[in-house]
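User: Here's a chain of 174 residues. Predict its fold as tokens.
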Amino acid sequence: MGMMGSLLLVLLLFCIASAAVSSPLPTILSDDTKPNAYEVLESYNFPIGLLPKGCLGYDLDTDTGKFSAYFNGTCSFSLEGSYQLRYQSTISGTISVGRLSDLRGVSVKVLFFWINIIEVTRHGDQLEFSVGIASADFTVDNFYENPQCGCGFDCDGASFSSPLRIKLRGSRPF
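Assistant: Prediction complete.
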């Protein structure tokens, strides 16, 4: 290998080394950079209190809005002292700005029956919870804090209060 061959080999090695140093390393995103379920709710214009404390994780298809959120077991608590809510260990549905639809895994107790909440929509400062034939409106400020399983928003003896308005769809309130 003559002088010219050695020079070409050195230049080739120099070019390879320069490319390796100057090319950016791939960015690896860890789960620490993924927003938590409560932050995702806020990004869709919902208060964090729609989910009780203890959400373990979630899956979200940002193209379709389909999601699943996971808890360590079933969670129930009272809302406004009169409505009992229950979250299954997995809840799912579709999320878009100001609307949760096709909900599964969230229910409200009416008299002696558990009825599925199928949709939550935000209208200004009101959240409308729909069970299909009826809906109930609550002010958004009721949901700035996360409820806790068992005691809801009244875990320290102080409860949030706001006017409760029930709006009928059809002829039956819930």
